[in-house]
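Below is a filled-in request sheet from our internal design queue. Each sheet records the structural input a requester submitted and the sequence that came back. We keep these sheets so that new team members can see what a complete request looks like end to end.

REQUESTER: design group, bay 2
PRIORITY: normal
MODE: inverse folding
CHAIN LENGTH: 197
BACKBONE (tokenized):
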């Protein structure tokens, strides 16, 4: 019985140590950032594959003021990555999967970026562009947070001269900590049952 208790204690200690070492590698963050710039589409959404071509550089907007992890970055030059999608509305899908570095910029020694993982909606007509999606926002390639993304604008002949792209990063709601708590509670229940036997 003593050997079993020592084994369970060793497993518990190893689990806590692993969590302490590996859970600290990336810190989730939050914040909102808005960009302005120009983008051109190859046509209306829904008519085959639609290509978006960004005129770089875009600019981190001064209003609304970037907040959270993006505080103080207004005025930074940002680079957007061209991409293609098929479909329209909620049926739109990215061509080629995740778009790495859909946007990126550097400020104050940090590099901020966003990987567009999927579209939740995409509609382009002659005078408007309205898109949204989800992905992963990063700082220095490591710190990562789930994020929502939007691209909106107006223009003529599929050139949107005032377009804005915004991203809102939201930290993990604590699911990893909750799972650890459930696992530890389970270990304690097993330990008590073994002790009672």
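RETURNED SEQUENCE:
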């Amino acid at each position: 019985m003593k050997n079993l208790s020592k084994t369970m204690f060793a497993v518990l200690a190893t689990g806590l140590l692993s969590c302490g070492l590996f859970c600290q590698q990336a810190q989730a963050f939050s914040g909102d950032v808005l960009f302005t710039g120009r983008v051109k589409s190859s046509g209306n959404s829904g008519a085959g594959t639609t290509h978006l071509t960004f005129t770089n550089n875009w600019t981190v907007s001064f209003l609304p003021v970037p907040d959270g992890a993006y505080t103080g970055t207004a005025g930074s030059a940002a680079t957007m990555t061209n991409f293609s999608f098929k479909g329209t509305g909620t049926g739109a899908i990215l061509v080629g999967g995740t778009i790495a570095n859909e946007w990126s910029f550097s400020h104050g020694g940090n590099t901020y970026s966003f990987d567009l993982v999927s579209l939740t909606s995409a509609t382009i007509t002659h005078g408007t562009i309205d898109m949204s999606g989800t992905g992963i926002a990063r700082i220095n390639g490591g710190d990562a947070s789930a994020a929502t993304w939007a691209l909106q604008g107006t223009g003529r002949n599929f050139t949107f001269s005032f377009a804005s792209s915004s991203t809102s990063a939201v930290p993990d709601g604590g699911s990893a900590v909750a799972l650890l708590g459930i696992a530890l509670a389970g270990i304690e229940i097993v330990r008590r049952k073994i002790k009672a036997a």
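SHEET NOTES:
- The longest strand covers residues 110-124.
- The chain has one domain: 31-173.
FILED BY: M.R.
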